[in-house]
Amino acid sequence: PDTGNYVETYKVPASEADFRLQKMKEFGELNAKLSKEKPETFAGLYIEHRPTFRAVARFTGSAKEQLAEYTNDPLVVAENAPYSLELLKSAQAELDEQLHKMGVKFESGIDIKKSEVNVYVADPADVKRRISGFLSGYKFIKVNKVRGFMKETSMTGGNEMGSTRLSTAGFNVFDANRELGITTAGHALNDLAY
Questions:
Q1: pLDDT truncated to tens, each residue of the chain (194 aa)?
Q2: Which residues pair with 7 in a beta bridge?
Q3: Taking the CB of residue 120, how many other CB atoms lie within 10 A of it?
Q4: Strand partners, 111
Q5: Which of 111, 116, 149, 159 is deepest in the core (most CB within 10 A)?
């Protein structure tokens, strides 16, 4: 099912889909290894499917040299980044703690491609004013206005979905437009009901 969905989504032959799915597992293993062994310079890894299939491993400092210590796979390219992923995570955790203490409703996330921490709030101007000192130390934190926040529902991860071809609900997610959704297994159909 994973191969079929990949073929349908990216319009590649099944053999290419199988190859890419295997490579994605390898990329995941590389990401875990770099996170563990190079936390001071590793800035994250992401996978691109279009226009070219590849993984991009980001580092502070000499990106190509650092990546060469771990792989010579031509499908993994090195890219320089201004901040390590550990620094972004640390700043995000501190920011989350401060906003919790202030009673501010928010959501936050890390954009690996841009080396940014994004926080989503109802009133960005108020939040920027209240944490201006904190923000002055972290130029990579972006405060964004959000139209709404995730709401608890009776749909939780692990629930079975569908009637003829069953799938399983995964994590709650939202897209670039902040529309709520859930992840499902790759073989899931688009018309599942719960």
A1: 789 989 999 999 999 999 999 999 999 999 999 999 999 999 999 999 999 999 999 999 999 999 999 999 999 999 999 999 999 999 999 999 999 999 999 999 999 999 999 999 999 999 999 999 999 999 999 999 987 776 666 666 777 776 666 677 787 777 776 677 778 777 776 666 66
A2: none
A3: 21
A4: 116
A5: 116
